[in-house]
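Practice problem: predict the structure.
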Amino acid sequence: MRNASCVAALTIVALGGVACSSNSTTSTRSVASTTTTATAKATSTTTAAKSSTYTVGQSAKTGGMDVTVYAFKNPYPPTNDAFNAPAGQQYVTVDVQVTNPDSKSQPFSSLIGFHLLDSANRQYDETIVPGLSPSAPDGQIGPGQSIRGYAAFEVPAGTSGLRFRTQGSLTATGAVWTLT
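Answer:
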């Protein structure tokens, strides 16, 4: 009797495993299909976003953040001569606001998310300029909150065709503003 109970229990477990395996496979196919559809939609949205260029005063959405560029100074003259750009270089500043429209806090790093591009598509990363205040948007941005400040870049003197690019997250395509 004891052997019959063990055989019955093993049979139930085996059938249950097959049933679970069968459902698991169906579930995986469904998720894969949904993922492919979502990826296709995201790709078409990203492609559309790549072709958009904004002007100063306009807002754009990137990586779940809303970004507005209000103004820029080229060249930016530091308020203290001790902080002038090195010889042959100049600073460019961008007055920018990052807004989190989400219902939960999101991190943002201007050092990772802000770049300046020139007419030859050379990329310049953000530079820290002592005395520039308020500083560039950084840190946790609460739900529905905004942080506004100045991002600074060091570029060769006379650099032209400047564009400001921001990525709301590491994987976001980003948005580009012409600085004219």
